[in-house]
Amino acid sequence: ELIIDLRYNGGGSVAVAEQINNYLIQASNSNKLMYTNKLNSLKSSLNDSENFSKKGNLALNRIIFITSRGSASASELVINSLNPYMELILIGDNTFGKPVGSFPLSRFNRTLAENNVELVPITFATANSEGKADYFDGFPANFSVGDSPQVPWGDTKDLRLAAALQYIQNGTV
């Protein structure tokens, strides 16, 4: 069993999400579609997709994620990409809902680059292998459990960690 705590992870690098997913995916799903990346019609030539490339020897059928409204973007990409391939249990609160991302525009615009100006608007949307891309309301928690930030990380008095451990032992919270 594996518990991944994403409750305060507002996202970050898509490349890191890909690395995590490549360790988590089952070997039988290596080379299958992880996600697609779509831009608007002016930049559609940059649309691409990413396939899983299994790393390590983890062989999991399910993963328990501890989530909150602070779990967003690349954290949600991990969840969305794995969802078609394994059972995912979310404990805590619904995630934020950010199935979109951005990259700096100066690499496409000489005026911005020459004037040392950077714009980083929302520029792409991601979808999993089933085409799921519309989760602007976030992913719902399977089990809604309050947070206990005053408890040290890894302490079983942490309400959400305790609930995840209870789920592993009993199949419910």
Q: Element order, helices and strands? A: EHEEEHEEHEEH
Total beta strands: 8
Class, according to the CATH hierarchy?
Alpha Beta
The largest sheet, given as strand count, sense and whether it forms a barrel, is:
4 strands, parallel
Query: How many helical elements?
Result: 4
Could you say how many structural domains there are in total? 1
Whole-number radius of gyration? Answer: 18 Å
Q: Strand order within the widest sheet? A: 1-4-5-8
Query: What is the name of the CATH topology?
Result: 2-enoyl-CoA Hydratase, Chain A, domain 1
- Give the class from helix and strand content and strand pairing: alpha/beta
Mean pLDDT: 95
Regions with little confidence, pLDDT below 50 for 5+ residues:
none
CATH homologous superfamily classification:
2-enoyl-CoA Hydratase, Chain A, domain 1
CATH architecture assignment name: Alpha-Beta Complex
The dominant shape is globular
What fraction, in percent, of the residue positions are helical? 10-25%
The CA-CA distance between the termini, in Å, is: 16 Å
What portion of residues belong to β-strands? Answer: 15-25%
